[in-house]
Amino acid sequence: MNTSLRPSIGSLPDALRATSDTAEAPASMDLIFIEGLHGETVIGIHESELHRPQPLVIDVVAGVPRALACDTDRIADTIDYSLVRERLHRLLLEHRLQLLEAFAEAIADILIEEFRASWVRVKVVKPRKFDDVQSVGVQIERHAPAAGSAKAAHGATVLKFLASGMVPARH
């Protein structure tokens, strides 16, 4: 049983050992990770949470198909976790989300869209939220959409509307 205050994504070997039957990253992925990033932000749904920052702990694992950096030894050929760290700190300052689920989704989107990860696992935790609980939180996994996917098609539709002067309503 993990008795430390720092939540983990699972033991590191589990995070790195991908299996096809558990919806984890495919075995051919190189995984870049950050464990235990501490920050504070205003997030929550209860009145007591909406007026002052509270601590969060963030773990991320981002997968890329065999990083070119393995051959080139250049940071530009992989995900630079120092840049991911900086971006996560900026998100903590700038977001206006209420739920940890939405916050975790924003992190996943950043890793996929800005850092070109093919697969991500994001865990966001509120440590000591309750006196009798070590931590509460969420963990999500996402895959980058395939080229020509519904998300890409939706973006093209929105661009067509914008070009015609029409803006679609948000659902």
From TrEMBL:
SMART domains: FolB (SM00905). It catalyses: 7,8-dihydroneopterin = 6-hydroxymethyl-7,8-dihydropterin + glycolaldehyde. Keywords: Folate biosynthesis, Lyase. Gene3D superfamilies: 3.30.1130.10. One of its GO terms (molecular function) is dihydroneopterin aldolase activity. Pathway: Cofactor biosynthesis; tetrahydrofolate biosynthesis; 2-amino-4-hydroxy-6-hydroxymethyl-7,8-dihydropteridine diphosphate from 7,8-dihydroneopterin triphosphate: step 3/4. Pfam families: FolB. Its EC number is 4.1.2.25. The keyword ATP-binding does not apply. Residues 32-142 form the Dihydroneopterin aldolase/epimerase domain. PANTHER family: DIHYDRONEOPTERIN ALDOLASE 1-RELATED (PTHR42844:SF1). Belongs to the DHNA family. This is dihydroneopterin aldolase. It comes from Variovorax soli.
